[in-house]
Here is the input.
Amino acid sequence: MACIVNVEGLTKSYKNQSVLNQLNWKIEQGDVVGLLGKNGAGKSTLLKSMLNINDIESGTISIFGEQYNQLSTASKSRIGYVPQENDEISWLSVNDLINFRKQFYCTWSDEKVTELVSRWEIDLTKKISELSPGQIQRVLIILALAPMPELLIFDEPAASLDPAGRRDFLKEILALVSDESITVIFSTHITSDLERIANKVAILDKGQICYFNDLDVTKENVVQLTVHYQPEQNITIPYLLRGKKFSQGQQGIVSQLDQAWLTKMKQQAVEVTINPMGLEDIFLELTA
Amino acid sequence: MKTILLHGWLVKVFIVLLWAIAIAMRLTMTDDTREDLLLTIIAFSNFLLYLMVATRLPLLTHSKMAVLLPNYSQKLKGVLLLIFGVSLLPTLLVLPDVLTWLAFVSISILSTLVFVAMIYQPIYQIFIWLLILMPLPMALLDIPFNKEKLFYSLAWLLPLITWLAYGLLNKLVNYRGNQRHVSKIIAVTNVSMGKTLAVQDSIPFADRTRLAQWWANSHFNHYRNIISNATGASQKISNRKLIEISCQSANSFGVNAYVVWTVGITLLCLLGISIDESYHHFFTPMVTLIPAMIIGTGSITLFQIIHSKKSYLARLAILPRFKQHNSFASAFLGYVFSNQIMLYCFIAVLLGLTARVFGHISVTIYINLVLILLVYCFLTISIMLVAWRTVRDLGNLVVWLMLIGFIGTIVFTMHMASTDMPLLILNELFQTLLVTSLLLIAASSYQYLRSFSKR
Here is the structure.
């Protein structure tokens, strides 16, 4: 698969406080990446830096093989972005805003706009300032989807949506990503959304992508283990993130399940129970 | 993009009207006696257009999407060139005087550069003050003003000015700097007329300039002290003071504003006393502008801030502190009246002081002006009270009415100064207006009190 986004050594700080520190990240075509991180971890900063919305201190970023700050018109046409906070001109009507955006794209799909506007019941005559946060979010999503982009970047897209709106939005993204050429990166706090559509999960912590893997692999590997053994046995759990011992064993969470170690335990007749974890717990453990 | 840059029908109508007047003047002009007036009308209309476009421009250059939308800067450049091209059409009325026309084009380009520069970098507002004060150093240094020579130079400088402007335009369409200041401009241009000043409070404190932070802090410190000193029952904050504290914003015209304006005017007057009287008329535009600026910041800001805090004040009104009948409404009215009366008294004193030093207005005109300001004060308070009382959002309408009334006041004052009008208080029409304004303020205050007693 072709590399769509390549970030190397990205560093960014605000008022001498480091936010991104020598961050490396590579996203391939067809990836649907959910970006998780604590509040203030720098998710929005990372996405904005990738798109040249924020200035960076050092590092290289390439999108579609081009320098992020020298993207050609063709490459820009292939990107859709939904920001976390609304930056649109508040006194424009939805219709005016759509027409304004349409001017820039030759791949603009009026059908897509019409379909989403009617499905999400958006009043085209209303000004942006008259819409609720959820409706604004929907308009921003429409604006990002209408040019039929190949790279979609969403910064907390579902934060202001109600459950029905979120489900509808996720359905739309699922339909989109069925086309394997489309790449999606989205930051979120809602791990259930991520589990529903992402095929990869990235965790941003301490200014770096501390974890980036397939979602299925993540769920298989990051598990809770309970090992029952006699006190005289000295057993060390590999890739242990956090654990506690009790009188007849140990319980802990591992970042990777070592199959060889499991086989060894079986041979030693040590009972090992594997408890799968939800993504939310995984995230909490990996960033603890 | 054109729609965004040219948003606002009132200014557009005004510009087109001025263009139409210019065309009519040109068609009926038989000699060159009115040429200067024609030039002034065209220049004024174009300056308005450039100012309108310049204030809207940050919405496009500093939009987050600007870096992402394909061909954005090229399209923006095209639209700006188109608007500038259209603005040059009325200047063709100057023809067949090619030299004047070329000079006019140079002036138009230079003015766009200044307007855009001062929107993005406030330091360039100094150009406007320099322009206002330019005649003074010219007179002091005995430099004769020669319009023909100036126009001749500007006409020949046109290629250089065009080259410079084109280079700057290429920079402008990709410019993303001075985020702090531009975010303030965007906040103001992104809202309707009724919220332009109040919205500045939504700019995060850390994003403001050091001067703005200091200004806000020094303003709020005064009220923090009042709160922290009100410990015992004897120092209990009065209802009116409580409402005053609740109605403060970073842009309120407070103690520090009074101090700064007083110091500024005193320095100006000291300068006026120290120089020869023959130079005093050079200060007339400045001393005329200052009261206008104070009314703008002191009166319109008060309205916008209270209007934006309507729901907050409504919550305040239902607190046990205001359980007595009409205690909130009467305290609120007390605050508004005292605030505005103090402001207009301050302006009257300033006007008197500057008139005494610079002699730009006679005693009769001064008294007339104070009377006009009194009527303006009564009328504006009346419409403010109506807007604060009604459920419907009348914010835009009130600010427009205040502005129109304000411009009307200035125009009338200019007319009054040029015609040496006698005392207005003796004029029957003015007496009627004064009585009407008094009745209006009484009626609107009564309605305001009644609206609270119904709750």
